[in-house]
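Give me structure tokens for this 411-residue protein.
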Amino acid sequence: LRADRHLMVSLEDIAWALNLRGSDVHTNPVNIAFLLIEPGSATLFIRPGKMDADLVRVLARDQILIADYDSLSTVLAGIPDEAVLVLDPQTTSIHIKDSLNPACRIIEKQAPAMAMKAVKNQTETDHIRATLVRDGRAVVNFLFWLEQQVSPPYPTEMSAAVKLESFRQAQADFVGNSFDPIMAMGPHSAICHYSADQTSDTSIGRQGLFLTDSGGHYRSGTTDITRTISRNPDRPSEREICDYTQVLKSHIAVATATFPKGTRGVQVDALARRNLWDLGLDFGHGTGHGVGFFLSVHEGPARISPHPADQALVAGMVLTNEPGLYREGEHGIRLENMIRVTRGKKTRFGRFLGFETLTLCHFEPDLIDVSVLDESEKQWLNRYHETVFQSLSPELDPPVTRWLRNKTRPL
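Here you go.
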């Protein structure tokens, strides 16, 4: 049974398929719409006035017609009896299914665009790499600024989020935050998805760890990065250093992983936890999620998680690598980079894959116990830090450049 029609319901799938972006959903650059693909044409169901005449003409050249958003039910009821329609049961409502001509046939399966958009082509990949240079400069400028805040009044979690956004706004093609940033000081950092408000907003003072998890939408890509720093005026505590180093080891384990084609994210997730499990430690969230191209910062179908997903990792997918460790009432540590699945060597046992680290921002040398890292981990970190410095330093101000050179000094 072959389908001749497909109703797209996922807003991200529609945005990707038509290369359209909007602002109908907070921190997600999509339009509220439906897309019905039929033989020889497609119809975009969207609110009147959302598109100007020039865009309507451009779409019409590709046989993409525009219809009122509220007319979808009427059109679905008029689909021919002999039609075979693909619907994704995970995204399609019962109301839509009940609106269909009951005589037509339905194939229930994952929307094809979901897997297609997860694999970035070469043009998208090149843009993402360039975007992460700009985003890396913004984050490094923010961390440099924050380190200079050594006396009261200190910035607060909420004001720090505004400051970081201002550094991103200075970068080319920045559109807005890819999610509401997590700025978490001290015990707040142990709350995995903490969100500061007027009641909880805390000063980023000079005692404890500070976690910053944020990202940006650029016309050339979407970013997501987490770093944890020490705000202590003296040496961080032994527990802080130990925990940070173990999370870094987990991060490196994923970044350097090699695995056979067909591997699922649940298998890679175990690599991130091995050293933590050996110490009786763990973290209560997935190690990574897919990232869209100027789209949702959380994109399916692939993920790196203890929850099985029937989706193999495929070369070209972009995900995050973000292990963590959280001690309630004390501190939380998370270290997140974006990574890209790459093709590796082929042996008699088949094709192997690996990861390319895309994000460019240093890790904190003063929080690393070098004696706990093995030689390969030190080599990876030194190579990564040199890449960070060489990529970001050309357009940083001299004081920031000198500061970053110290942060990326070889172990």
